[in-house]
Fold:
Amino acid sequence: MVIIIISLLLFFSGLSIGNAAEKDVTLRVFIFAGQSNMVGSDSKVRDIKNFPPFLGLDKPQKNIKFSYLIGRENKTASNGWIDLQPVNNTVGPELSFARKVSQSVNDPIAIIKCAAGGTHLGGDWNPDQPIGFKMYPLTLKLIRDSLAELDRDGIRYRIEGFIWHQGENDMFEKNYMPNYGKNLKNFIAKWRSDLNSPKLKFYIGELCTKTIWGMDLRPRMYAISQGQREVTDSDPLAEYIPTSHVGVEIGEPVGLHYHYGTLGQLQHGINYADSYLRTVGRKQDRVRSLKNWPYKKGKGVNLFILAGHRNMEGERAFVQDAVKLGEGDLLKDNPNIAFKYSLGGGYRKSTDWEPLGQVSFYDTFGPELSFAQSLKSNNVPNVSIAKFVHSGSQIIDWTPEGSMAKSRHIYPDFISFVEETISDLKTKGHQVRLAGIFYHLSENDMSFYPYRKMAAERIQAIIANSRTDLGMPELKWYISQQLPTDEKGVNRIDVVGDFEKIAKKDPNLFHFKAFSLPPQKKKLVLDAAGIIQLGRIMGEGFLK
Structure:
């Protein structure tokens, strides 16, 4: 009997050893492919030092394997696996993606990247009849060669995801643009077949609407986005990844650009990492609960609505820089102010009231923190703040009629957000005084002549309709305006004068000229010092 028990123990012990061996680490392989905004065009490794959340990504990541083939006529290749690092002094989204994912999963990861600017899904990337630079067969060979090397080294791996960012060039071809969805569906199916991965997850990056193409080529870009959404809506293993809220390179002479540039690429990678980590159940957002409701039941609440674009969102205001400025206390949660928000056009939303504090995607903050400080220091009672922003929008997206790009129309969501916020406060037993809507003018609109020309007229339409839709004919609007783009081509429009005129005619419209902001390194966007000052200008303007 004892012999039998010992034999059984040895048998089950052997099973445990076998199971442990089966749980050995598996290399997670991710494929990155696309055109210029996947390459990292107009980014610079030396600029990483300007963006505190991403410090260190200029150095090789020795725990991440990397195999690549990048470029068109003059290609750069790793010729096998190397440590993940910048290529050709540019910054790709794989750098931030890899660091974030590797910090959140136990298995090692590897990146295979093939990208070339100015390439088409309908031609270069066509899996059936590739033309031009024939990117599909090039990428397939790169992937197969890279995986074969892993096989030779006895490394167990799994293809974990395919990250795709492309489409701008297809919108210039009359046959490619309307067929983008059909071509993308075929593209995905061929990859799954050729890689023998029928359940391969695809992450399809949105074309960035914050670029100049997102403005002057709005209909074409919308057509590509429709094709992408057709696929991601019908394919449960394909996900549409919003990217219009990320930073964009500041160009000359007016500030607008075609590419993400350094900051945008780094944030771009975080978007894909967050989506992947949600897929595998590893994405954990910081919980910011409002434990005790700060207002006594039956008391009135002063509700302030903040709305706008790049600087109201706080695109380049980093928390690390605020600390250096001695403004670290601003970043602390304030449980005495209830806060609601929708950021990045709904990319991140509060699920319930939270304490006012630093909330963002990339360690950034907006002017609401210093705005609230100004109100509280002047003893404004029972302050509540709700913020609705989308840094990738233009004023036309906020108008009641919107544009032909229906998916970019945010006016209905904005009005619903205000209504729901008021309703929720009333349900909690409060009388609500909507103190006003504070809107910071779109930075991009000021740099593009057709949009600058229509800016004041469009704002008037938004204000008039909001008063009607909210049933508040005397609703106060506070419009803040930083120094607009100073360039000969757009200076033909006196946009400051335009807003002075409409404010003069409307007793409930107040125009704040935020012209005394600290000197800024870049056009359009404000750094931490500028955002803090903007909030104080808004607060002081309200008090006056």
In short: The mean pLDDT is 94. The radius of gyration is 26 Å. Residues 300-543 form a domain with the Rossmann fold fold (CATH 3.40.50.1110). The CA atoms of residues 257 and 382 lie 42 Å apart.
